[in-house]
Amino acid sequence: MTDTHCPYCALQCAQTLSEGDADTLVAVPRAFPTNVNGMCQKGWTSTELLTVRDRLTVPLRRTVDGDFVEVGWDEALDDIAARVRAVRESAGPDGVAVFGGGGLTNEKAYQLGKFARLALRTRLIDYNGRFCMSSAAAAANRTLGVDRGLPFPLTDLNDADVVVLFGSNLADTMPPAVQHLGGVRSRGGLVVVDPRRSATARLTDDGAGEHVQLVPGTDLVLVLGLLHVVFAESLVDTGYLADRVDGVDAVRRSVAEWWPERVAATTGVSETQVRRMARLLADASPHRGGGGAFLLTGRGSEQHTDGTDTVTAVIDLALALGLVGAERGGYGAITGQGNGQGGREHGQKSDQLPGYRMIADPAAREHVAAVWGVRPDQIPGPGVPAVELLASLGTPDGPRALFVHGSNIVVSAPDAGAVRRRLESLDLVVVCDIVPSETAMLADYVLPVTQWAEEDGTMTSLEGRVLRRRQAVRAPAGVRSELEIFADLARRLEAPGTWATEPREVFDELRRASAGGRADYAGISYDRLDAGEALHWPCPTDDHPGTPRLFADSFPTPSGRASMVAVRQTGPAEVVSADAPVWLVTGRVLQHYQSGAQTRRVAKLNGSMPRAYVEIHPALAQRIGVEGVDEISITSVRGSMRAQARISPDIRPDTVFVPFHFADEGLVNAVTLAAVDPVSGMPEFKVCAVSVARTRT
Ligand SMILES: Nc1nc2c(c(=O)[nH]1)N[C@H]1C(S)=C(S)[C@@H](COP(=O)(O)OP(=O)(O)OC[C@H]3O[C@@H](n4cnc5c(=O)[nH]c(N)nc54)[C@H](O)[C@@H]3O)O[C@H]1N2
Ligand SMILES: Nc1nc2c(c(=O)[nH]1)N[C@H]1C(S)=C(S)[C@@H](COP(=O)(O)OP(=O)(O)OC[C@H]3O[C@@H](n4cnc5c(=O)[nH]c(N)nc54)[C@H](O)[C@@H]3O)O[C@H]1N2
Ligand code: SF4
Ligand SMILES: [Mo]
């Protein structure tokens, strides 16, 4: 029996794998605070990932005809190193770029950042967490001084009076977490803000709370309206604000213009509902004797060009009510990928070094250079965020080569058709994966790597708790760990420093590199984790108990105070028009994970949802002549996709919803746009303008 955690999302449900071989292994849930005893369908079927029919087990090289041939590891690595050198000679070190993933273990994410900077010598590394967590991260950093998804244990939600979910469909995206909403639902305090009556919105039925069905892309205005009401009706926690928060007056002034009637006109949420929500929150706040309130954001409110400002406004509201750091209350972003938290702390982000240090900070460079055994000037400077990086590939001054580790960008990146064309224009694409994803199929080299039950490592959950991933089976012959690949290539490229291949050794190096940083792992060790200790970072020393709750006494800012930041409405980058009269909203379904590279290969999951669908309101369906399961095509100026209709009154009549887990004709990112948030670089996945029509065959 092997105790480990699920390979998929950031809830990181605890699971125990039976004894046996890859084809007999069974996963069952284990008692653990976050998942209690639960797993979703993806966790229950996770062991099928080990034996998918087309698992990669041999390095592949693309021939001039576009076919793949099997090659030996030495031949592949020698040739990749030679081609990297050639690109470097013609285009300089920034001719090579790296794209990482938030599903990689801490060890792999750390080593990938080091590999990019020291072995490839490029500044151009970024990763898919830019699509996922960057706006919430930027907002938390600028207001609270630190970015840890949930700065409190998930179980804290149980005891609160109110929990507001801004654009999170937890019931489909982290089903076991719904257990922690039982208490708040019994008190009628669950508020779900979503343009769809999602599975999570339905949890508010029967007096359990409220569904706020706003116009897509208008969360910021809604929150400005809530701030308006709490200031105008003197519901704020003045003592807390005086003691702990700067910038209050500027926010008070800036929200004065957002009276509820005006908010209603933009958001479609009635004036009464805005006032009711504000008062509900205020009454739950500790300074008014309430039982506590949590404000949580998911991708629905974050994946917008104003995502950083929206989350900032939510944090302003949490501060105004004295919730942040309160015993029962706070703000949190619900982290998405398995290691979405750890993956954004240790250096695969373009501006970052391990321990959440900033790469432009001379002191940070000096500390990390000493751990790496190099001079600070051997570490390149900041790169560019993911969307900008992808758009620059193969352009006259852009990179000529790309390494991809843990992302299926031709399915998951915005305006995916353009991303495919950029990849096709490169001299060298190397993709490490476990399966032949759509992106791997465009590579010059595909390298087969180990996955969760075949490797050791650590993952950092949505609570900032570091968890052990443990090996249960041997990887198929021919498969290598990415730690080995980094070491092999670093040697061939004559990189400075040492390149450990054992996860425990890499983690020990990561601990030293993170020591003294914002995300300090120095006191966390495999031994402590294996002894069952629950360790949340920061954990600076071997005898430190870890920090499950942040902000009780102060904020990790130079003054120890939080900052409210005044923000302004900007609205979506693309708005509906006569040619594109409908809002397109994208997101997830229970059965599939992300680009679907993994779950579309799991028979039980794919069997229950083999194709994309378009959720459409009966009134809109009727207007375009769609009945039953007719096929609908969705078109924007960038491209189109098609899928079966799913007619439902749960969505607004001005909006359609499509899951993004599918390729080919069901590829919704062929339609989405690559506009980004100016602060975080997060793309606006959640809203663009489209036309919808019945597909004529
Ligand atoms: N089953 C499953 N679970 C997953 C994943 C998966 O792919 N599949 N991925 C994991 C990852 S990486 C992530 S990031 C999380 C994401 O988890 P969530 O954030 O819960 O997922 P989404 O479905 O992307 O978006 C949530 C909701 O936002 C709504 N929404 C769309 N536009 C708006 C808007 O303008 N405002 C508001 N308020 N809501 C809006 C959508 O209708 C949707 O119901 O899930 C994790 N868990
Ligand atoms: N339209 C739309 N698009 C979206 C979103 C949306 O809501 N709407 N959400 C965005 C969000 S939040 C996210 S997080 C992204 C996610 O989208 P992607 O970045 O594409 O994520 P995955 O599909 O998880 O891709 C992971 C790939 O890595 C492989 N893999 C798994 N484990 C390992 C490993 O250990 N090493 C290596 N090298 N490979 C591994 C998997 O087989 C898979 O091919 O999509 C974004 N795209
Ligand atoms: S909720 Fe997430 S971690 Fe838990 S079983 Fe499902 S996919 Fe795995
Ligand atoms: Mo994500």
From TrEMBL:
It comes from the Bacteria. Pfam families: Molybdopterin, Molydop_binding. Residues 583-689 form the Molybdopterin dinucleotide-binding domain. InterPro entries: Asp_de-COase-like_dom_sf (IPR009010), MoPterin_dinucl-bd_dom (IPR006657), Mopterin_OxRdtase (IPR006656), Prok_molybdopt-oxidoreductase (IPR050123). This is Molybdopterin oxidoreductase. It comes from Aeromicrobium marinum DSM 15272. GO terms for cellular component: membrane. GO terms for molecular function: iron-sulfur cluster binding; metal ion binding; molybdopterin cofactor binding; NADH dehydrogenase activity. Residues 55-491 form the Molybdopterin oxidoreductase domain. One of its GO terms (biological process) is respiratory electron transport chain. Keywords: Iron, Iron-sulfur, Metal-binding.
